[in-house]
């Protein structure tokens, strides 16, 4: 039987079906759903460069950021903050990571070439060679957005020369109990 849909529609449909499957899996299992972005951010690095007038701090060298059940790692992380209210702590709005970005929680691992943690929008965006693992399931693409409120993940297809622009996934299917056989 020949399909009546053009090839582009097949790719869009496959991506849509995968997105639905990912969003259901992530929202059902992610410990980061409803992550409290107002928790303290603990940052460690080998070096810190403060650029107070620009409202940023650049952490370099094996940088690790922990916030509740969320851990970020990267070579360099730039923290953007606002000091307009001099009587209070700086209001951190965003963290930009350059160089092998990793996000870990109890239930998932997210790896890419760069990452942005938008604290205000409660959104993590990862790009480059993206790999998203949850349990034994794995997804690959070029750009992923992870909503920390809803747990919804959106993954765009790989954009390399060797790729056909598709999202790739490998999922573990739970085994079903075998029916009782009569003696």
What does this structure look like?
The chain starts with 6 loop residues before the first helix and ends in a 13-residue tail after the last strand. The chain is built from 1 helix and 10 strands, in the order H-E-E-E-E-E-E-E-E-E-E. It has 183 residues and is mainly β. Strands 1, 2, 3, 4, 5, 6, 7, 8, 9 and 10 form a 10-stranded antiparallel beta sheet that branches.
Brief account:
The chain has 183 residues and is mainly beta. 13% of the residues lie in helices and 48% in strands.
Could you tell me the strand content as a percent range? over 45%
Low-confidence sequence ranges: 1-28
Mean pLDDT: 79
Rough outline: elongated
- Helix percentage: 10-25%
Please give the largest β-sheet. Answer: 10 strands, antiparallel
The number of distinct helices, counting runs of at least 4 residues, comes to 1
Q: Give me the count of strands.
A: 10
Q: Which structural class do the helices and strands define?
A: mainly beta
Spell the H/E element sequence.
HEEEEEEEEEE
Rounded Rg: 20 Å
Question: Termini, distance in Å?
Answer: 42 Å
In terms of topology, how is this protein built?
Elements: H1 7-29, E1 42-44, E2 47-51, E3 56-67, E4 70-82, E5 91-104, E6 108-118, E7 123-134, E8 137-147, E9 153-156, E10 168-170
Antiparallel strand pairs: 1-3, 2-3, 3-4, 4-5, 5-6, 6-7, 7-8, 8-9, 8-10
Overview features:
13% helix, elongated, mainly beta, 1 helix, ten-stranded antiparallel β-sheet, disordered N terminus, 48% strand, 183 residues
């Amino acid at each position: 039987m020949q399909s009546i849909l053009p090839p582009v529609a097949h790719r869009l449909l496959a991506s849509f079906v995968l997105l639905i499957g990912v969003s259901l899996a992530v929202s059902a299992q992610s410990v980061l759903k409803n992550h409290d972005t107002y928790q303290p951010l603990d940052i460690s690095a080998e070096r810190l460069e403060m650029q107070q007038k620009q409202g940023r701090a650049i952490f370099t060298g094996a940088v690790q950021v922990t916030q509740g059940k969320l851990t970020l790692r990267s070579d360099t992380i730039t923290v953007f903050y606002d000091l307009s209210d001099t009587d209070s702590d700086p209001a951190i709005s965003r963290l930009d990571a350059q160089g092998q970005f990793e996000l870990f929680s109890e239930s998932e691992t997210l790896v890419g070439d760069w990452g942005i943690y938008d604290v205000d929008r409660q959104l993590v965006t990862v790009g480059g060679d993206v790999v998203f693992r949850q349990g034994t399931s794995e997804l690959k693409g070029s750009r992923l957005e992870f909503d920390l409120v809803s747990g919804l993940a959106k993954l765009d297809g790989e954009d390399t020369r060797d790729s056909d622009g598709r999202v790739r996934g490998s999922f573990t299917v739970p085994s079903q109990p075998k029916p009782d056989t009569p003696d």
